[in-house]
UniProtKB/TrEMBL annotation:
<keyword id="KW-0206">Cytoskeleton</keyword>
<dbReference type="InterPro" id="IPR056290">
    <property type="entry name" value="CEPT76/DRC7_peptidase-like_dom"/>
</dbReference>
<dbReference type="GO" id="GO:0005856">
    <property type="term" value="C:cytoskeleton"/>
</dbReference>
<keyword id="KW-0963">Cytoplasm</keyword>
<dbReference type="Pfam" id="PF24656">
    <property type="entry name" value="CEPT76_peptidase"/>
</dbReference>
<feature type="domain" description="CEP76/DRC7 peptidase-like">
    <location>
        <begin position="149"/>
        <end position="250"/>
    </location>
</feature>
<protein>
    <submittedName>
        <fullName>Transglutaminase-like superfamily protein</fullName>
    </submittedName>
</protein>
<dbReference type="InterPro" id="IPR038765">
    <property type="entry name" value="Papain-like_cys_pep_sf"/>
</dbReference>
Amino acid sequence: MLKRLGQGVLFILVIILTSALQQHQRSPDLIIDEALERLPLPADPNASPGLLRSGSLQLMANGITLNQLDIDKILNKRREKPSIYLFGQADLGAYIMIAPGVDRRYHLVNSYFDGYMPFRVENPVLALYTVAHRKKYQLDHITYPGRPEVWQSSQQAFFAKVGDCEDHAILVADWLIGLGYDARVVVGDYDGEGHAWVVLFAEGQEFLLETTRKRGLNRLKAFPLARLQTKYHPTFMFNNTDFWQNQGSRFTTDYASSDWVKRSHYVADR
């Protein structure tokens, strides 16, 4: 009787362990689908300029501030609006970029981080995986006819079906920041063509995340080390609070080196 009872307990234990293992090994698609089912949908995120944060930019070199009103005044004096505008001074270098949003206004690039985290994941690879399978890569002039450059905030990027490289990068970086990671968007070029990607600082290393990659992602595979990605040539780097300029070689692969100079600090109003 005790022997049969022991066998029964063992059988129940095997079932529990098997069930737990299956739960742990659930496919990323199933995990994402379940999370999306519980996700509240905004009415129309692409038409809502309120998703963008407002704030002030402080220049690290002299303490001068720049806000959205200052940007509007500067651009109103220009007959032709640039796709992306770089603010700088000869003695200070470049200290911030502004870019046009869905709302047709130009915003400081830091403001496109609106703090949106779709849902919490234990493995950061799942954030990258979700974006890769949820969002299609498409150039802005196709998505927004007559507009060569349009940036989406992280929330806009999550709910918009298409977007280009910076839209993917801002969404992934902001998601990782929400999970407690140090993640930044880098702009420069990939093998000679303008591009944006994400650098993740973790465990004393820098990892490069190609957020427009749609195939070959595996949640059990480690992120690639940034120092080995020599075709990526960084110029600027930013997150939700700061903006850095690369003053070293365009071929640098060390995103934590002294070549990176912090040019400005962004403080959101909310």
